[in-house]
Amino acid sequence: MAKFRRAMRMNRPGDFTRVFRQGKRFGGGGLTIIALPSSVGHPRLGLAIAKKHLKLASQRNRMKRLIRESFRQHQASLDSMDIVVLSRPDISQRDTIQIRTALERHWLTVVTQWQNS
Fold this sequence. Notes:
Elements: H1 13-22, E1 24-28, E2 31-37, E3 44-48, H2 57-74, E4 81-87, H3 96-116
Parallel strand pairs: 3-4
Antiparallel strand pairs: 1-2, 2-4
Helix pairs in contact: 2-3
């Protein structure tokens, strides 16, 4: 059973900056994923869910839980990647199933894009 440990989180601003500058972007389903291989040895997740897109803290927290859970389930296939998930303006119009489907598609895209590079 995969866990979402503290080491799986991107916390330092420098890590986010590096991914924003050098990473590949994948969009759709109300989310944008930016991914970049890292030398850490395991995948790490960073979240940037905008208050502008989800007004209530409870909505933002729910979105973060959904993303972390999906990441946890797919972390074995993500190798050593730094991944930042950003919200987009149309995220508030998506339901849970649409978001989970979009995340599944994004994880698959991240894996196939970096294997082909």
